[in-house]
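ugh ok fine here u go
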Amino acid sequence: MVERLYQENIGKVPSSSDAKISSKDEPPPGLSCQLIPKHVAVIMDGNRRWAKKKGMPPMYGHRAGIQALIDLVPICGNWGIKVLTVFAFSSENWIRPQMEVDFLMNLFERILQEELDNFMRNSVRLSVIGDSRKLPNSLRRLIMKTTETTKNNSRFHLIMAVDYSGRNDIVQACQSVSHKVKDGLIKPENIDEPLTNQELQTNCMEIPYPDLLIRTSGELRMSNFLMWQLAYTELYFDESLWPDFGEKEFAMALHSFQKRQTIWRRFQRGFRRRCPEYSS
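structure:
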């Protein structure tokens, strides 16, 4: 049944008119190459509502959402972004109808299979964070194969959070640190932020802290995503449903980010002039 639904939907879903692969090797006019964020995180929200608006089942929206992600990856690489972390499936999503969950698991497998050649051709490294114990064995094996095959790719790093919980990430980091204390490997007074960061699931990244978080669909909350890592991240909320979030909308998010960075830099320069004693 899930396979039939996948086959029925895969040929129906068009890319968003805006979500096209950029042919440019640099950001569009108005964006500064010097202020491009190195790490962008995205909560890809709105797939189900997008499908409902079109009178289609949720699976139709999920397939369109994956297409929007596939289209965004080369844009990020071309514009100088080094890491893209996306919230693909939260630990709370298991409560959805079983048919929808099975479809998503099947969809993840298909995308990993279909995109591996593109990852290798474009030097994209893939990592998956989250609790993999509930995932189908076939998907777990494919994740291991894809992450191992792409581990030496260095142009761009795509992180997919699957069965991920920000709170659980912090809890498991604390548990790991406590075991090291119990085993005498470290002392309690040596526990600090860098050590804790090493125990988080994002330790697979060279740039673990996102510069910018984007959430689509108009929702204004974090939904348990990267709770530790987002402490100083700039937040951007867009009204677009995720399948409609394309190159134009992405450029607007980066414009907002760069405007804030410009204001902050001006403030810092002015502060140093007024208070030279605080300058490094």
